[in-house]
Design brief:
Residues 8-37 form the Phosphoribosylglycinamide synthetase N-terminal domain. With 45 residues, this protein is mainly alpha-helical. The protein has one domain. It is built from 3 helices and no strands. The protein has helices at residues 2-11, 14-24, 30-44. Helix 2 packs antiparallel against helix 3. The longest helix has 15 residues, at 30-44. The model has no long low-confidence stretch (mean pLDDT 69).
Length: 45
């Protein structure tokens, strides 16, 4: 089940991945998750 969830996160777009991370993490960890996604996107550019 966990591997399947990770696969689903990989196949979605950046916005979907950001949303999935925000939903799975606790509210106090959401900022860190969004920052991580932002860094990954910035490095891709």
């Amino acid at each position: 089940m966990k591997d399947n969830n990770n696969y689903n996160v990989l196949i979605v777009g950046n916005k979907g991945r950001e949303y999935a991370l925000a939903q799975r993490l606790q509210q106090d960890e959401r900022v860190n998750a969004l920052y991580f996604v932002w860094v990954m996107v910035a490095l891709k550019i």
